[in-house]
Amino acid sequence: MSPRVVSEGDRRRRRPTKQGAVLSQRLIIDTALRLVEQHGADALSVRRLGIALGADPSALYRYFRNTDDLLLALADEFIGRSLEGWEATGDWRTDLRAMGLRIHHSYHGQPQAALLVAHRTTGRIHETRAVETILGILRDGGFPDPLAVRIYHSFADQALAFAAQDAAAAALPPAAAEADAEVWRQAYGPLPAATHPHVAATYPLLAADMSGSGYPFALELMLTALETLHPDGAGGGRRDR
Amino acid sequence: MSPRVVSEGDRRRRRPTKQGAVLSQRLIIDTALRLVEQHGADALSVRRLGIALGADPSALYRYFRNTDDLLLALADEFIGRSLEGWEATGDWRTDLRAMGLRIHHSYHGQPQAALLVAHRTTGRIHETRAVETILGILRDGGFPDPLAVRIYHSFADQALAFAAQDAAAAALPPAAAEADAEVWRQAYGPLPAATHPHVAATYPLLAADMSGSGYPFALELMLTALETLHPDGAGGGRRDR
DNA sequence: GTTTACACGTCAATGGTGTTGACGTAAGCT
DNA sequence: AGCTTACGTCAACACCATTGACGTGTAAAC
């Protein structure tokens, strides 16, 4: 008896489905990504993916052990894409900022896969390269090793944590996402100054600010703090007091 | 015809189930939290919750409109518990720090539930009180409204994002957690200086640092940055209103 | 105390999900 | 040309959230 899933290298018989599609891991991953992009995260089910491929849903189990296996493959795919094409400028502020925003942005683009991978340590090639790059920015930027390592840890965790957080929001079923957005109008708007003076006083500002991600400003705050920790005093004289 | 779900105030008839349980929102939420605590986030389904309560699963729909409604109630309960007993000192640095660590800590203590809940906006009583409290710390601390709001947003998101991130790590099944820890030794330890000079140079520091959470340091960085943004320059004193 | 209205627990059914075992066809080797 | 067996298909299982109909028995009204 043959194992249910055959590794891609050993695959031989390319047998078309009833509807004429010739399956492969590549085709399945690409189709799944397209499905998620076009119809949202919850459109990705084995049954729907089967239909989109023109194959019986159970055929997928010839290519992936289970849906988790498939989603990890998806995640790995976009990690690769998210690191593509970045180049260092040599200024640690600029480079850290770009790195953070890039991670955050690319995870946000594929929330479903992001959710799965954001809190795992993969140790794979793209991840190790990212670690190396960020550490390099900090050490070449003049931070001593112990500080560079602590900063790396907080910087990377913060980028991933915010990315996962925002991805989770983006991956909510439409109804729940709508509800979360409405909450700021319906629950916080009517709060009276008597019981919630600070919310009442700042409500318009709040409602406007909360619609976006808190990450960009958090990143700027971190960069600001790093300037004061930099061994060269004010960190190149950008900040004054 | 009566609406399917009756608001808690208007509820009158307390009719025991076949198995003798007398349902209420309180009982349901407490049971759900216990279920998640004991058997993990995946154990929370309407059917299983019904069984745990000793009631037909569909009885839940007399108390919550749907599972999302139940989840939000769960989330708010969680927020409430994590802020129980906190008291302001009047110093915004101390208070913000305490607030952040408290959120982070309580989520870490209930990782399974935290995962389920960390990225929702509930708009309910405990959450609004938390928002009011944090905004109050910032405004009473002397930050002008537009800045206070931006800071609130990034501060709260940071605490929640890290909490979810660390909860996710703590909630991994033992086997997967072991595997993730091993990755740092097996994948990063052997990286040669030729291809990954920065990782190789700092590996002992890295391995030691990565075992903890990045949040405490990230929080300190944020507080440091806030000092420089404070209108009183070095952020010396408390401002009265 | 008796009556009455209806709240709410229960049942059954719907349409979704991931996953597996059995089966036979046809693909690609010899 | 014949043989093996990979792999696409089918059917079934166990679970999921949710809803409409129903009737019991509680608590209010009298």
TrEMBL record, chains A, B:
Coiled coil: none annotated. Pfam families: TetR_C_1, TetR_N. Keywords: DNA-binding, Transcription, Transcription regulation. It comes from the Bacteria. PANTHER family: HTH-TYPE TRANSCRIPTIONAL REGULATOR RUTR (PTHR30055), TRANSCRIPTIONAL REGULATORY PROTEIN (PTHR30055:SF151). InterPro entries: Homeodomain-like_sf, HTH-type_TetR-like_transc_reg, HTH_TetR, Repressor_TetR_C, Tet_transcr_reg_TetR-rel_C_sf. This is TetR/AcrR family transcriptional regulator. Residues 22-82 form the HTH tetR-type domain. The keyword Transcription applies. Residues 45-64 bind DNA. The keyword Metal-binding does not apply. SUPFAM superfamilies: Homeodomain-like (SSF46689), Tetracyclin repressor-like, C-terminal domain (SSF48498).
